[in-house]
Amino acid sequence: MKIIVLVKHVPDAQLDRHLSGEDNTTDRADSILSELDEYALEAALQLIEARGGAKAGNQVIALSMGPAGAVNAIKKSLQIGATEGVHLRDDALAGSDAAATSFALAAAVRHLGADSPVDLVLTGMASTDGETSLVPAQLAERLDLPQVTFASELEVDGGRVIARRDSDTHYDTIEATLPAVVSVTDQINEPRFPNFKGIIAAKRKTITTLTLAEIGVDPTQVGKAGSWTTVQTAAARPPRTAGTIITDEGDAGIKLVEFLAAQKLL
Amino acid sequence: MAKVLVFIDNPGQALKKSSLELLTIARSLGDTAVAVNGPLNDDVAGAFGANGATTIFRPSSDDLDAYLVGPKAAYLAGAVAASGATTVLLENSFDGKEIAARLGIKLGAGVITDVVAVDPDGTAHKSVLAGSYTTTAKATTAVSVLTVKPNSVTPEPAAAAASPEVLTVEVPESASAGAARITGRKDKPASGRPDLAEARIVVAGGRGVDGDFGPVEELADALGAAVGASRAATDAGWIGHDAQVGQTGKTVSPQLYISAGISGAIQQKAGMQTAKVIVAVNKDAESPVFEIADFGIIGDLFQVLPQATEEIKKRKG
After folding, report:
1. Angle, to 10 degrees, between the axis of helix B70-83 and the axis of helix A135-143?
2. Which residue on chain A is closest to B272 by alpha carbon?
3. Within the 63-92 window of chain A, which residues sit less than 8 Å (CB to CB) from chain B?
4. Would you say residue A247 lies in a domain?
5. Chain B residues with CB inside 8 Å of A174's CB?
6. What chain B residue is nearest to A163 in terms of C-alpha separation?
7. What's the confidence (pLDDT) of residue B203?
8. Residue ranges covered by each domain of chain B
9. What residues in B contact A19, CB-CB < 8 Å?
């Protein structure tokens, strides 16, 4: 089985995050592997482990598009268990919106499937920076593959993928034929941590760097030039300031209600 | 006049508040057409007219619900062509965002999610990085596709009702070829509480509830509020994942957010940042949540919440 897992290097959501520069792009200092991508990686590893793992010729390729630092997300993925890494890196990619990102990633997926076909493209439910959830669906549209997204359970059997997708009002069972683009939620599994053996093994794994020219993409089709949306202004939300803080002296519940009444919130 | 298309998926017996909000925004931008999927009853058709829709599109196919996302995007692409719309509005649900995503590729149109307001020139306003920035963004393409968060405007009917004509949009058979099929559906039991993403008031519990959401739920019911939870509480299995607010859960922008037993780490603050008024109850005076609370109570939620619930019931008689 050949699985591509899309991994993104994003600013750590546990820290304060910033937009910077004239074009209001995300400041990528203090970045890590997007937490939500760990679920996709874990799902991929479970699928190949059930089929004899890497020894049986199964592949989990961690593919990341991003500047130089993005290689760290790939390295972390290799430590966790991905069998190889691919870094799509080109200055012309800077400032890509979801449409341009999906264009570049679709070309990279086609490139990686040229020698042997890809069975699954696995992704997280969103990046923890952009948080749009657009890329998996746009990738499926561009590759003309079935889209099985927001999976909270996943099974691959006999050339078919079967998933559970939850909405607020119901649970759906989704089925599609392989190859497919699948995104998974943070409910699907408990991602593993890299262990010592994995960290050592990762040093021997291959990371291939691809440029736009190598995947046949014209630089004007991606980056700011190839994007269909533009961020015009960005303003930091004024920090909220603390209001009244009281210590309960036996009547705080009543004081709470008095506060709500004064704010006309009852 | 600019033409705007609003997608309403399965309106059912009556239009949801979030649908009325989309129609209200659409009217502020131009001449409104609606693309419906699923059965359309007379009351709903009437409500579209009352909200100023001049055209109602329906798909030639009645099995779009048998597939995930793709064929609905193909239908909408047809409706955009038939209406000449330059702006398409959808709801900001998982389905709404993904239909928008694929529609964007089909039309070569920019997609903007999580929109809270749209200017007449098409500029969209949204929050990013978990509410720490507000931005304006715009599609640079002929058509823009926007998914709009609930509670973004107050829904209002049109000054003058329209009598919309109903037109059918042909959905090509190829639209469902190779699409993922929905082969089973199980309904979740209804809670009777307002929808978390749309609720005016949210009462949320965290690690501090220590397995007992009773006081949180009782206060929520006294206020007619939705129940939310931090990730720690949903991961512990104390309450369903549907209740999770914050980065990997739902983003909420209620009038009032009451947090109980939530310390207010950055990711938790992210879930409440865009609320108008924040009330926090926590035993630990050092909790970061008190830095952003409009009204904070250092105290035991198992004392404070039930007392507040009683007081509300007394006042409401």
Report:
1. 80
2. A240
3. none
4. no
5. 68, 180-183
6. B182
7. 97
8. 3-176, 201-316
9. 128-129, 133, 135
pLDDT in tens, B158-189: 999 999 999 999 999 888 988 999 999 999 88
> Which neighbouring-strand residues pair with B159?
none
pLDDT the model gives residue B272:
81
C-alpha separations of A12 from A28, A186, A251, B246 in Å: 9, 17, 40, 15
- Structurally, how many domains does chain A consist of? 1
- Segment A58-77 shows an average pLDDT of 97
Which residues in chain A are closer than 8 Å to B182, comparing Cβ atoms?
Answer: 172-174
Tokens of B56: 């109602």
**Which residues, 6+ apart, have CB-to-CB distance to A12 below 8 Å?**
A30, A31, A32
Q: Are A143 and A107 in contact (CB under 8 A)?
A: no
Q: Which residues of A touch B73 (CB under 8 A)?
A: 141
Choosing among A96, A224, A245, which should be mutated to test the B contact, i.e. which has the most B CBs within 10 A? Answer: A245
Range of the domain at A22: 2-226
CATH topology identical between B3-176 and B201-316: yes
Assess if residue A100 is contained within a domain: yes
Task: Give me the mean pLDDT over the B246-263 stretch.
Answer: 85
Rounded mean pLDDT, B71-93? 97
Chain B contacts in chain A segment 188-227 (CB below 8 A): 227
CATH architecture designation of domain B201-316: 3-Layer(aba) Sandwich (3.40)
**Dihedral class, residue A131 (left if φ above 0, else alpha if ψ from -120 to 50, else beta):** left
Residue with tokens 């996943």: A154
- Rounded to whole angstroms, the Cα distance separating B135 from A25 reads 11
Query: Does the distance separating the beta carbons of B308 and A234 come in below 8 Å?
Result: no
Choose the mutation target among A14, A39, A134 for the interface with B, i.e. most B CBs under 10 Å.
A134
ipTM above 0.90, yes or no: yes
Asked if the structure places residue A134 within a domain, the reply is yes
> Does residue A245 lie within any of the structural domains?
no
Regarding the domain with residue range B3-176, which homologous superfamily does it belong to in the CATH classification? HUPs (3.40.50.620)
Judged by DSSP in three states, B82 sits in helix
Q: What is the pLDDT of residues B20-30, one digit of tens each?
A: 999 999 999 99
Q: What is the tens place of the pLDDT at every residue in A207-256?
A: 999 999 999 999 999 999 999 999 999 998 888 888 999 999 999 999 99
Nearest to A254 among B134, B294, B307 (CB): B307
- Residue B247: per-residue pLDDT: 67
- The residue in chain A having the minimum alpha-carbon distance to the alpha carbon of residue B195 is A168
d(CA A93, CA A88): 9
Contact B33, B83 (CB under 8 A): yes
State the CATH number of the domain containing residue A168: 3.40.50.620
Q: Tell me the shortest Cα–Cα distance from B51 to chain A, in angstroms.
A: 26
**Residue type, position A193, single letter:** F
**Closest Cα partner for A252 from B282, B273, B286?**
B282
Distance (Å, whole) CA B117 – CA B125: 5
Q: Please give the interface size between A and B, counted as residue pairs whose CB atoms are below 8 Å apart.
A: 274
